[in-house]
Amino acid sequence: MKENMEPTATVSDKDPNQVAKMFDSIAPNYDLANDLMTFGMDRVWRRAVRQALRLRPDEDVLDLAAGTGTSSADLATTGARVVGGDISTGMLAVARKAHPELEFIEADATNLDLPDNSFDAVTISFGLRNVNDTQAALKEMLRVTKPGGRIVICEFSQPPFKPFALTYRWYLKNVLGRLAGLVQSNDSAYDYLAESILAWPDQAELSQLMYEAGWSQVGFRNLTGGIVALHRAVKPVENN
């Protein structure tokens, strides 16, 4: 059943209010659905993000699209000071209840109410795909990162091996929503999820967008056969 949200086409326009409402509606069982749909691989991907960031205890990191706070809590195990941000108040309510020791803020990735050059690192996992202006978000993340600081983006991507890519597309179109429906009443959100993944730029295209936004030393590596890609880059010192 598809209820409690606007039609998928509206959300596909990535209107921030509609995206926030969609995530509000799935917040209570969000982590359970993620574990189910990824067969537990979401834990592996979180660990890969933490390792790629190479955080130190004296550093500040901004974790955008923090959702229920699971990713922020994982980053906090490094001893770094973590600020989790999300556009969904429903997600933030879950995060604050589950992780009261951490700081969470309402944050639109395209318009961050944060000072320039305030974080040693910034990261966003499975959230850049949901903003309505990718370049604006990349530039905002650049603005709040200290010169010489780094970014790690973890996002669904395009498997380079064609037979695997075809199987993955079939899974997105035919299986993902049914699995989500086992624990979520709003399965329309997962129709949107599949659509947004299929429409998302591939690894090379996202790398180019990062360069165009001002990031340097851009690189990526595929995880799980390219279902997910981990993009890394550094803010040039001359941007200070």
What integer value in Å does the Rg equal? 17 Å
List the secondary-structure elements in sequence, H or E.
HHHHEHEHEEHEHHHHEE
Q: How much strand? A: 15-25%
Total strands: 7
Q: Give, in spatial order, the strands making up the sheet with the most strands.
A: 3-2-1-4-5-7-6
Principal-axes shape call: globular
Low-confidence stretches: 1-12
Structure description:
With 240 residues, this protein is α/β, with parallel strands linked by helices. It is built from eleven helices and seven strands. It has helices at residues 8-12, 16-26, 30-38, 41-53, 70-76, 89-98, 134-144, 162-174, 176-180, 188-199, 203-213, and strands at 60-64, 81-86, 103-106, 119-125, 145-156, 216-223, 228-234. It has a seven-stranded mixed sheet with strand order 3-2-1-4-5-7-6, with helices on both faces. Helix 7 (134-144) links the parallel strand 4 (119-125) and strand 5. Helix 7 crosses helix 11. The chain is globular and about 45 Å long. Residues 1-12 have low confidence and may be disordered.
